[in-house]
Amino acid sequence: MKENFIKVTKIQGCGNDFVIVDYNEFEKTGMLMSDFAKKICDRNFGIGADGLIIPDVCNCSSDADIAWYFYNSDGSTAQMCGNGMRCFARYCYDKGLVSKKQFSVKTLAGIIKPEILVDGNIRVNMGIPILEDEKIPFKGERKLFAVDRDFEITPVSMGNPHCVIFTEENPFEMAKKYGPTTEKHEYFPQKTNTEFVKIVSKNEIDMCVYERGCGITLACGTGACASLVACVLNNLTENTVKVNLPGGAVTVEWQGTKENPNKNIFLIGPANYVFNANYML
């Protein structure tokens, strides 16, 4: 008798939640990945999540231990997702898809290397931030107009484009008001994630993100990394900061400088299971 369900797992990192489905389970759906992502991530008619992740142990390159397919809740792809990578690492190690606590993952942003730490947190080598306009991609000035005001911005790519805006106001309220406009601003030909950052101290910031393809989420790992890069480039913080997100806190480390930005950036934070379930097709 043919099964009419697939096995799914939901995991969250600081409230940024993802559905993870093994590739052989996904194949039972007979759907395109983008369509399946929209269906299963729907918070009314599906499981509900910020994104869908599909591990693939077969179609990874020789320099990676495993590959992933990552889709936002609107069915669009994303080059990278820091919180998603932590959740992916937890799942792959626990399920035995990889046997090492530090391994390599093939993504659209290149090879990413997560590591499961002794305390249970996951440390992800997010690679080197991209600051060249044409590679972000970014086409414009460092001042951007949105809704009713101008913003000084710092564009950064972590394999996906980011627009960092510093504010002394409430980051969540700023994201809610200005995020939809900045996401689709003409300066960013592939759209952008926008981080609204409030400096707490030299070692701590508050941040809320309006994510490309998702809207406001409780956390964004690449956004936390892009925010630290922008902080350092603007001489606002030290090289290691606690990033307070609506869904929790992560730590970001980057030893780069304005003069020498070609240093790897590291994201450290939790990944916790929500549930395992059978999803009816």
Secondary structure: elements and pairs:
Blueprint: E1 5-13, E2 16-20, H1 23-26, H2 33-41, E3 51-56, E4 66-72, H3 82-95, E5 105-107, E6 110-116, E7 122-125, E8 143-146, E9 149-157, E10 161-166, H4 171-183, E11 193-201, E12 204-211, E13 215-217, H5 221-233, E14 240-245, E15 248-254, E16 265-269, E17 272-280
Give the averaged pLDDT, no decimals. 95
CATH class of the largest domain: Alpha Beta
How many strand units?
17
* First-last Cα distance: 15 Å
Please tell me the CATH architecture of the largest domain by its name. Roll
Number of DSSP helical runs: 5
Query: How is the quaternary structure best described?
Result: single chain
What features would you describe in this structure?
The protein has 281 residues and is α+β, with helices and mostly antiparallel strands. It has 2 domains: 5-127 and 271-280, Diaminopimelate Epimerase, Chain A, domain 1; 133-263, Diaminopimelate Epimerase, Chain A, domain 1, CATH 3.10.310. The protein is built from 5 helices and 17 strands. The chain has helices at residues 23-26, 33-41, 82-95, 171-183, 221-233, and strands at residues 5-13, 16-20, 51-56, 66-72, 105-107, 110-116, 122-125, 143-146, 149-157, 161-166, 193-201, 204-211, 215-217, 240-245, 248-254, 265-269, 272-280. It has a 17-stranded mixed sheet that branches. Helix 3 (82-95) links the parallel strand 4 and strand 5. The mean pLDDT is 95.
